Amino acid sequence: MGEVLALIDYGAGNLHSVANALKAAGASKVAVTADPDVVRAADRIVLPGVGSFRSCAQGLWGIAGMVDAMTERVHVGGAPFLGICVGMQLLATRGLEHGVTKGLDWIAGEVQLIERTDRAIKIPHMGWNDVALGVHDPASGLVEPGEAYFLHSYHFAPDDGHTVAAMTDHGGGLVAAVAKDNVVGVQFHPEKSQVYGLSLLSRFLEWKP
């Protein structure tokens, strides 16, 4: 039957595109779901996210039992987890968009507005940009250097530099990916990043952290 990958539907993700990209990358069964029981039984979990940190957090916590199911499956069951864009930002302790909103606190840090250090720098950070590996490579080869598609106005600032898997540059360094144990998050959109993005998703489907 192959592995079941749970793509969490909490009203805040680009689900159709992400599901299609996962299938193109080799996923045998993608379960688009808002059911905590499906998440609890999944082999791998993907949390997408489009919109503000606050609205995404409200959507995720608004599904009774979902955060508990995710936490149990990932931190107790050891299922590989991928957060995309705001789904990556939700791994943080808190987000500062539209006030302070708590995150999952799976990777300590906070999500802050990108500072405009140069008038030529546009916010949101939108379009193709380089992805350079972090110093410590906590994702064990999952994230590779290349070029990916970004769209965000806020960025993840982790407390521990050892959790930074990749960086990009937009008027200064911004975290492009974070990782800790069996959890990885990418700020860019793999589903919009063509060959680079599909390659990353394919590696995630084989990832055994």
TrEMBL record:
<dbReference type="GO" id="GO:0016829">
    <property type="term" value="F:lyase activity"/>
</dbReference>
<keyword id="KW-0456">Lyase</keyword>
<keyword id="KW-0315">Glutamine amidotransferase</keyword>
<dbReference type="InterPro" id="IPR029062">
    <property type="entry name" value="Class_I_gatase-like"/>
</dbReference>
<comment type="function">
    <text>IGPS catalyzes the conversion of PRFAR and glutamine to IGP, AICAR and glutamate. The HisH subunit catalyzes the hydrolysis of glutamine to glutamate and ammonia as part of the synthesis of IGP and AICAR. The resulting ammonia molecule is channeled to the active site of HisF.</text>
</comment>
<dbReference type="Pfam" id="PF00117">
    <property type="entry name" value="GATase"/>
</dbReference>
<comment type="pathway">
    <text>Amino-acid biosynthesis; L-histidine biosynthesis; L-histidine from 5-phospho-alpha-D-ribose 1-diphosphate: step 5/9.</text>
</comment>
<keyword id="KW-0028">Amino-acid biosynthesis</keyword>
<dbReference type="GO" id="GO:0005737">
    <property type="term" value="C:cytoplasm"/>
</dbReference>
<protein>
    <recommendedName>
        <fullName>Imidazole glycerol phosphate synthase subunit HisH</fullName>
        <ecNumber>4.3.2.10</ecNumber>
        <ecNumber>3.5.1.2</ecNumber>
    </recommendedName>
</protein>
<feature type="active site" description="Nucleophile">
    <location>
        <position position="85"/>
    </location>
</feature>
<dbReference type="GO" id="GO:0000105">
    <property type="term" value="P:L-histidine biosynthetic process"/>
</dbReference>
<dbReference type="InterPro" id="IPR010139">
    <property type="entry name" value="Imidazole-glycPsynth_HisH"/>
</dbReference>
<feature type="domain" description="Glutamine amidotransferase">
    <location>
        <begin position="7"/>
        <end position="194"/>
    </location>
</feature>
<keyword id="KW-0963">Cytoplasm</keyword>
<keyword id="KW-0378">Hydrolase</keyword>
<feature type="active site">
    <location>
        <position position="189"/>
    </location>
</feature>
<dbReference type="InterPro" id="IPR017926">
    <property type="entry name" value="GATASE"/>
</dbReference>
<dbReference type="GO" id="GO:0000107">
    <property type="term" value="F:imidazoleglycerol-phosphate synthase activity"/>
</dbReference>
<keyword id="KW-0368">Histidine biosynthesis</keyword>
<comment type="subunit">
    <text>Heterodimer of HisH and HisF.</text>
</comment>
<feature type="active site">
    <location>
        <position position="191"/>
    </location>
</feature>
<dbReference type="GO" id="GO:0004359">
    <property type="term" value="F:glutaminase activity"/>
</dbReference>
